[in-house]
Structures are given as structure tokens and as C-alpha cells.
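Hi W.,

Here's what went into the run:
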Amino acid sequence: GAGVSQTPSNKVTEKGKYVELRCDPISGHTALYWYRQSLGQGPEFLIYFQGTGAADDSGLPNDRFFAVRPEGSVSTLKIQRTERGDSAVYLCASGFRLSANTGELFFGEGSRLTVL
Amino acid sequence: RKEVEQDPGPFNVPEGATVAFNCTYSNSASQSFFWYRQDCRKEPKLLMSVYSSGNEDGRFTAQLNRASQYISLLIRDSKLSDSATYLCVVNEAGRRALTFGSGTRLQVQP
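Here's what came out:
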């Protein structure tokens, strides 16, 4: 497909387990973002990649969260020792470099994580 | 204080009504502004950018007041299909990430 693809669409796990969420961005997009969204809230920034490197990881809540994008395309968000408070929809978005005039990010449908 | 604040609503309006949403942002260095739309259980999508001089796209008009750090969205002649959550979005100078408000929910009723 032509859009941002995220897998799994739903993930239920137990407290303390390790989780990986995958994002396949739109081909050619250099920028990739991870956000998470809780019910009734807007998306909350986690991390931004430009190419292979994490250009801004200031939104990661703690060191249990880590993300990689080794070849500048697919990205994986990794969450260690999951906690119930990690339950949310994790959204991936891709685009070209943001500028003053271009604010279009293309979001995937998200991975809904539930930690029991 | 949140970086981007919006009235969560819901705004319940009849078809054909005009409705306006407001948003304030805290960082005066913010340089670009957008409205995104999010349907229930769907991903956010760009609705329109907001320019300093104000801009219009069909039934939608966006305004920016930098002095008051205030952004607005006006929807004229509301349609049932306009029912969604409208997210106010800001890009701060020097950052490459967008900051989203919590959204304002609109319900257009027949």
C-alpha cells in the first residue's frame, strides 16, 4: 500500500513484558515520528528520526522506551518492562523535513497497546 | 501549563450551522500552525495550514493572532461529515516535531 503501515494493529501484553511495534513509512519520506495517544488526548511526541539517526528523542518518557531505524526506512519502537500506564495507541508518522510552510505528516492507523 | 490548549467540547451543532474553535499556544517562538482532523478511532490527517494573514479553504477559515498566541478555525455550513475531533497543532522554532493539542470534538446533528 501507499500509506504508513503499522504492525501489530493490536497488542495485549502482561505487565513486565517486552513489546516491539513496527512502522513502515511511505517510500521516500526521510522523516519518521513516533507519537502516542491516550483516550481523550492529542498525540504526544516521542521521537523523531531524520534518516537513520534519532534527531530528537526528548519525548521518550524514560529509558524503558527505545526506537531504531537502522536503514532509514522501517522503524521499531521497543518498550521494556511494560507498565499499565504504557497502554495507549502508538502512532507512527512519516513526511519530508518540516518547514514553516509544510506541516503535513502522514500517520499510520496506529498500534493499540494494552498492558494488563 | 500545556503547550497547546483547546476546549475539549463537545460542540453539538445542527447541520448548516457555523461553528468556531479556538486554541492558544504557550511558546511565543512557535513558527508554524496547523489544524488536523481526527475521526473516531482513526489517524489524524492534515486539514489545513494556518497563515499569518488568515486563509480559507472552502467552508473552512483559519486565523492566527501571534500577539495573543491564539489560533482559530471557523467552519461554515456544517455537514454531518464534519463530525470529528479537530486538533490544533504547532511547530516550535528549532524543533522538527509537531505539538498537538488535546482536540475539540464536533458533533453535527441532522
